[in-house]
């Protein structure tokens, strides 16, 4: 055993010697000894108080209480689950801070097979005193040098090594590989490290060393390594306890109880940092005079008071203080002292452990005392043994009280009557001290009788656990890279968006001129917005969005009143024959008329028909092609108004007076225009997407006349059908397109609208699963089901208030077996897809507003856009992103977005009302 130790950690030294006249041992020496030993007794009542007080501090820290600062820190780690036992690979583990002045380097091989363990290779390096107390860079350079020396000695292949850093000091972690040192504890005090990311310091030092490429992928507290390396047993191992140079524990807490985390499902490992318990004075009643002196003479006076009663760095020192005190009072060693007895750090944990071990016999105690320069008398060995026992028993009992607090916390948060749990134990005090664990276990039983606790020694001094965490971290980092690669094509920069805007402008101009263009730019024959003088009752139909609606619209002096009913259009009808579809529409109208008492009346009717139509007048619209989920036969190329009339005839119903057929964008613009005359653009982002706007008639080639304006239905969903968007299109867009009922068509719409975003996300999730990044690589039948991932899930998942809990609930409902890492990645996929959609939409709006501004020769344009559609209205960030993109790409236009409240049926009725008013005026 190595008995050389950090003598210099304590600075004072006394003068050794004997009383002048070699005093015989005083007769009351055993009384004096007892008096001292009594101070180290901690009653069960005191233990219970410590247990309760620590539990309170733990709970205060969990709730994020700032003032007064709780006595323990409760630092969340980024370890969220205990190991599966399936991790595998080779890892380098660096261990700093657990065991005194030593640095351990290990090569750990995880086999991924339960119970099959390969002995790690390891080497220990002694850290010189001046390095422990010198500049931080020197310490990390030392570490990097030892690491490269270790790797040089083994022909292990040194490229791309994954390293786990076991760092036994209090740190704020912000990632598995990001950890800021709060303060040094135990025997370290290197300058320039507190407040720094220790992983970065290590990486920098490795780079300076320049030996080989090592990837530092994880950093963990030593307690976490201890817990994570625990062999699987009957009870889950959810606590890691370390009693080495210092002491601390970690345990698995419910994430929802950790205020600083935005996570309300699952568990997270929390490092308690219980060494600082009592720094607020809570340990007053159990502190002895020896504890006070020890604290004053330590590197960090006033800090880590609990640790200083338990940790191995301090036990030898406490024994030395007591023995020196007794010797100086003549109760031991004939009143003689020695240099070692009076030198701080002169007695080490190893001395104490050996002297206390009764099986070694008193001869061994004598030998050790003589090594320490003392001349023990006949009864001294026994008394010294009693001192060692008292100091160590107190340590074990205090440690038990702290552990009992953790168990109580676990039991409470798990709401279990009887807690079955395994505690992984590590550190030299637990491992080598003869009685420590025994006393600890016995006391835990006394303090936490309702907990069934098994104690399991850690494997490879926690090295295996660190390797486990490193394996998980390496896997997660690789997954993150794959996720980033997958999502990169969805992240559009300003140049790409400006190019979309420019292409759109060009396609608009060509479409208006009747040249080949993916934008049809259809004239709508809507030339004027309502002037407020329109009156009357109108019928309206609204077909083509999520719902089919029949409406009765009353336009009066006081405003517009609407009565409407929603009817469903089954997919079989939308994709059946045209006759079936229009018969169904007529059935709905007849039903509505009957319910509203309108049967037999022929009210003027406005028909919102949200598909591309070539109009030759307001009441004539030839369906060019179906879009979205519609594919009823024999309709394309037909006048929709005629199809409706024929159906009325077939049903022998009364003729309807169809005055206007309008696109939903137009209906939306008119509806919003009723309240805001600046509304000259209509935008839909729902099942499909499209826009219309007021264009100068002189620019519209197909319509006679040059004066005034006409609303143009852009049919921008088809933008890019000529291949102009191909550079932005991803393989996922291609898959969605190919599986749709109109491959090659509506390419812009398929990147933006509600009918497709869920499908894009589903295809990305399938891809990530096939790479093993998501759902542990398990393909599920549910994810392979078309349209299972609804676009409304994007809105729900991305909603800030619902957080990851919601993601998980949604995915679990879909039968997807996800971890919390999966939930985060799914959220990022949704964000990337919806952000691209909103930005593309914004680029389109930017093209439109700039066109209007230039048409009018204005420096600045102020204009409103009427918007409708479930995606735009329900998604938490979509509207904001559209507006931001427009502002970025069209800075000279002040654009206000108005959400349509009443649907486009109201607008269709208003178009009808205007037409009726104009017709009436013409007749007069
Ligand atoms: C409705 C309009 O409010 O929004 C419809 O009345 C329009 O005309 C629809 O088609 C678009 O949104 P979605 O999400 O229903 O397709
Ligand atoms: C000290 C450290 C802590 C560590 C413990 C055991 O208390 O602050 O992080 O876990 O020692 O080594
Ligand atoms: C589709 C239709 C279009 C409609 C849009 C929004 O793109 O072709 O006419 O405006 O969906 O519903």
TrEMBL record:
Named in its record, the pathway it takes part in is: Carbohydrate degradation; glycolysis; D-glyceraldehyde 3-phosphate and glycerone phosphate from D-glucose: step 1/4; Carbohydrate metabolism; hexose metabolism
**UniProt-annotated location(s):** Mitochondrion outer membrane
* Domain Hexokinase N-terminal per the UniProt entry, residue ranges: 33-231, 483-674
Gene3D superfamilies named in the record = 3.30.420.40, 3.40.367.20
The UniProt entry lists membrane topology as: Peripheral membrane protein
Reaction(s) this enzyme catalyzes, per UniProt: D-fructose + ATP = D-fructose 6-phosphate + ADP + H(+); D-glucose + ATP = D-glucose 6-phosphate + ADP + H(+); a D-hexose + ATP = a D-hexose 6-phosphate + ADP + H(+)
Segments traversing the membrane: none
- Which residue ranges does the record assign to the Hexokinase C-terminal domain? 239-472, 680-914
Question: What GO cellular component term, any one, is given?
Answer: mitochondrial outer membrane
GO terms (BP aspect) = glucose metabolic process; glycolytic process; intracellular glucose homeostasis
| Recorded coiled-coil stretches | none
Q: Does the keyword ATP-binding apply?
A: yes
Q: Does the keyword Kinase apply?
A: yes
Can you name one GO molecular function term for this protein?
A: glucokinase activity
Q: What is its EC number?
A: 2.7.1.1
Instruction: Supply the alphabetized keyword list.
Output: Allosteric enzyme, ATP-binding, Glycolysis, Kinase, Nucleotide-binding, Repeat, Transferase
Which family does this protein fall into? Belongs to the hexokinase family.
State the function annotated in the UniProt record.
Catalyzes the phosphorylation of hexose, such as D-glucose and D-fructose, to hexose 6-phosphate (D-glucose 6-phosphate and D-fructose 6-phosphate, respectively). Mediates the initial step of glycolysis by catalyzing phosphorylation of D-glucose to D-glucose 6-phosphate.
What name goes with this protein?
A: Hexokinase-3
Q: Which organism is it from?
A: Pipistrellus kuhlii
């Amino acid at each position: 055993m190595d008995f050389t130790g950090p003598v210099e950690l304590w600075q004072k030294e006394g003068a050794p010697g004997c009383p002048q006249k070699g005093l015989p041992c005083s007769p009351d020496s055993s009384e004096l000894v007892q008096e001292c030993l009594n101070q180290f007794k901690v009653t069960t009542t005191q233990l219970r108080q410590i247990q309760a007080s620590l539990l309170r501090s733990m709970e205060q820290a969990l709730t994020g209480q700032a003032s007064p600062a709780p006595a323990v820190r409760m630092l969340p780690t980024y370890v969220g689950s205990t190991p599966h036992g399936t991790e595998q690979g080779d890892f380098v583990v660096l261990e700093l801070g657990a065991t005194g002045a030593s640095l351990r380097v290990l090569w750990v091989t995880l086999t991924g097979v339960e119970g099959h363990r390969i002995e790690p290779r390891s080497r220990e390096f002694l850290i010189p005193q001046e390095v422990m107390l010198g500049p931080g860079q020197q310490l990390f350079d030392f570490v990097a040098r030892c690491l490269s020396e270790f790797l040089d000695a083994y022909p292990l292949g040194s490229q791309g090594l994954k390293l786990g850093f076991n760092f036994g000091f209090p740190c704020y972690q912000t990632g598995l590989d990001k950890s800021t040192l709060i303060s040094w504890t135990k025997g370290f005090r290197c300058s320039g490290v507190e407040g720094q990311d220790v992983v970065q310091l290590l990486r920098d030092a490795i780079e300076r060393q320049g030996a080989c490429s090592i990837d530092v992928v994880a950093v963990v507290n030593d307690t976490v390594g201890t817990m994570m390396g625990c062999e699987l047993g009957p009870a889950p191992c959810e606590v890691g306890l370390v009693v080495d140079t210092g002491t601390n524990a970690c345990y698995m807490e419910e994430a929802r109880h950790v205020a600083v985390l935005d996570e309300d499902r699952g568990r997270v490992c929390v490092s308690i940092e219980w060494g600082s318990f009592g720094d607020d004075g809570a340990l007053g009643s159990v502190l002895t005079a020896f504890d006070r002196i020890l604290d004053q003479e330590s590197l960090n006076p006033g800090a880590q008071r609990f640790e200083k009663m338990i940790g191995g760095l301090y036990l030898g020192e406490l024994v030395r203080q007591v023995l020196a005190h007794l010797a100086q009072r003549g109760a031991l060693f004939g009143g003689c002292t020695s240099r070692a007895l009076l030198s701080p750090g002169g007695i080490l944990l190893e001395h104490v452990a050996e002297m206390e071990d009764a099986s070694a016999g008193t001869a061994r105690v004598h030998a050790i005392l003589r090594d320490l320069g003392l001349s023990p008398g006949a009864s001294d060995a026994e008394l010294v043994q009693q001192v060692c026992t008292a100091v160590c028993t107190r340590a074990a009992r205090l440690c038990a009280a702290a552990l009992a607090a953790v168990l109580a916390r676990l039991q409470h948060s798990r709401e279990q009557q009887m807690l079955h749990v395994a505690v992984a134990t590590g550190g030299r005090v637990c491992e080598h001290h003869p009685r420590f664990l025994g006393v600890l276990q016995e006391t835990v039983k006394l303090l936490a009788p309702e907990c069934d606790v098994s104690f399991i020694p850690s494997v490879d001094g926690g090295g295996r656990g660190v390797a486990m965490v490193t394996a998980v971290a390496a896997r997660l980092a690789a997954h993150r890279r794959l996720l980033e690669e997958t999502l990169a094509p969805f992240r559009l920069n300003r140049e790409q968006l400006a190019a979309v805007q420019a292409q759109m402008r060009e396609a608009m101009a060509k479409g208006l001129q009747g040249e080949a263009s993916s934008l049809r730019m259809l004239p709508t024959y809507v030339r004027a917005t309502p002037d407020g003088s329109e009156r009357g009752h109108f019928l309206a139909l609204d077909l083509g969005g999520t719902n089919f609606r029949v409406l009765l619209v009353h336009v009066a002096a006081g405003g517009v009143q609407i009565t409407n009913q929603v009817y469903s259009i089954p997919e079989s009808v939308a994709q059946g024959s045209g006759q079936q579809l229009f018969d169904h529409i007529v059935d709905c109208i007849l039903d509505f008329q009957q319910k509203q008492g309108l049967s037999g009346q022929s009210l003027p009717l406005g028909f919102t028909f949200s598909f591309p139509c070539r109009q030759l007048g307001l009441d004539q619209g030839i369906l060019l092609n179906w879009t979205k989920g519609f594919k009823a036969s024999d309709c394309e190329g037909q006048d929709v108004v005629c199809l409706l009339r024929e159906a009325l005839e077939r049903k022998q119903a009364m003729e309807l007076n169809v005055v206007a057929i309008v696109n939903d964008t137009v209906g939306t613009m008119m509806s919003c225009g009723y309240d805001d005359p600046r509304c000259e653009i209509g935008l839909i982002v729902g099942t499909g997407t499209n826009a219309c706007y007021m264009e100068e008639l002189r620019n519209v080639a197909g319509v006679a006349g040059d004066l005034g304006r006409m609303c143009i239905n852009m049919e921008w969903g088809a933008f890019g059908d000529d291949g102009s968007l191909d550079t932005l299109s991803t393989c996922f867009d291609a898959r969605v397109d190919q599986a749709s009922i109109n491959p090659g068509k509506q390419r812009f719409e398929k990147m933006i609208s509600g009918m497709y975003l869920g499908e894009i996300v589903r295809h990305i999730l399938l891809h990530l699963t096939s790479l093993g990044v998501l759902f542990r690589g398990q393909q599920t039948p549910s994810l392979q089901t078309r349209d299972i991932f609804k676009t409304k899930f994007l809105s729900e998942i991305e909603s800030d208030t619902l957080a990851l809990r919601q993601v998980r609930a949604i995915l679990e409902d879909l039968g997807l077996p996800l971890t919390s890492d999966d939930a985060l990645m799914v959220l990022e996929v949704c964000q990337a897809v919806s952000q691209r959609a909103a930005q593309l939409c914004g680029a389109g709006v930017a093209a439109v507003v700039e066109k209007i501004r230039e048409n009018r020769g204005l420096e600045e344009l102020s204009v409103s856009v009427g918007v409708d559609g479930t995606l735009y209205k329900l998604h938490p960030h979509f509207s904001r992103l559209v507006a931001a993109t427009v502002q970025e790409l069209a800075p000279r236009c002040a654009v206000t977005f108005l959400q349509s409240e009443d649907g486009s049926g109201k607008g269709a009725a208003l178009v009808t009302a205007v037409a009726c008013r104009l017709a009436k005026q013409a007749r007069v």
